[in-house]
Amino acid sequence: MPALTDAELTVLGLLVEQPRHGYELERVIEERGIRAWTALGFSSIYYVLDKLAKRGLIEAAGGPRSGKSRATFRATRSGVDLCAEATREALTALTPVHARVLIGMANSPGLPDAEVRSGLTARLAALREQLAEVEATRASQEPLPDAAAAIFDYSEAMLTADLTWTKSVLDKETAMEKYDVKKAHRALYSPPSKDFTVVDVPALQYLAADGHGDPNTASEYTNAVEALYGIAYAVKFASKKTLGRDFVVGPLEGLWRADDPAVFLTRDKGKWDWTMMIHQPDWVTEEMVREAAESVAKKKDNPALAGVRLRTLTEGTSVQILHLGSYDDETPTLNRLHHEYLPEHGLTFNGDHHEIYLSDPRRTAPDKLKTVLRQPVKPL
């Protein structure tokens, strides 16, 4: 015979206890707080009664009645036996918990931190309300038989455990809010793509590594970028572990310079000097960077590790735009900046050409790349 669902076993058990009609089943289910641990709505009671009757597990008591709502049902002999068998199995069964909140937590990195905290806060409030309702239902029926008391104990324990877990996660989310430079300085990392905009760039701290030559072919460049990321993640993990302060590793950024700025328009990359950078929160210190570099060096030998340093860059007034597409297609935009926008606004260069690489070129098609092009400026 097919196994009983939780709803079927619950209703069958109540009819084994004593004959009842639909409205009485609803009253008992409500009074005992059964809905706190079994999904059994009022409308579904009659659906379950029909299923049990068709299987011969219950029957109408005292002959047929007019209308299902006042028909009294009782368990048959086979219903009593199956209920006992299913009850013995249920007492020993370990039912896995498939809490939907776990899926939410798994996907939470895709949401803003504030939304994650808001969702957990709402969950905490709902759990407290549900626990209060269960406690009030219990109190209204005291003293309870041992079996009924045990059921309430279990419901309260599960809700309390969930409440405790939710509160601890919320406390951690609040205490260790991740610093993200792209959010803290949104205007600097999300310029429009059609028009140049003027921004005031404050002093910001970076891991930095210097070099020369074509970034597409120079091993010096590859080593520098690898060293920067290795140290950046080592600093992040150390900060989280020792300081309780976490942050999102920022995008790769580059300062580009040459004796003749025209080489940027001609794309003569072999004559480029560069400083590659990754932003660091202001609480990161030279000592943390040095310890991180030593830790990375133990895992892999990279000559660029020794040259990574912590530096502060103050660019001040700058003009920037978001470039969409391949790095080699930046020339028209830079031409417009150098030969149209700056002269028309009485501005000239006041620092290195700065690029911020918002996309990962390993995973993004060239025509989809997003790069912030920034130029510090001053009046002519």
From TrEMBL:
Naturally occurring in which organism (per UniProt): Amycolatopsis echigonensis
Record Gene3D superfamilies: Regulatory factor, effector binding domain (3.20.80.10), Winged helix-like DNA-binding domain superfamily/Winged helix DNA-binding domain (1.10.10.10)
Transcription regulator PadR N-terminal domain sequence ranges: 11-80
Organism ancestry: Bacteria, Bacillati, Actinomycetota, Actinomycetes, Pseudonocardiales
Name of the protein in question: PadR family transcriptional regulator
Domain GyrI-like small molecule binding positions: 195-377
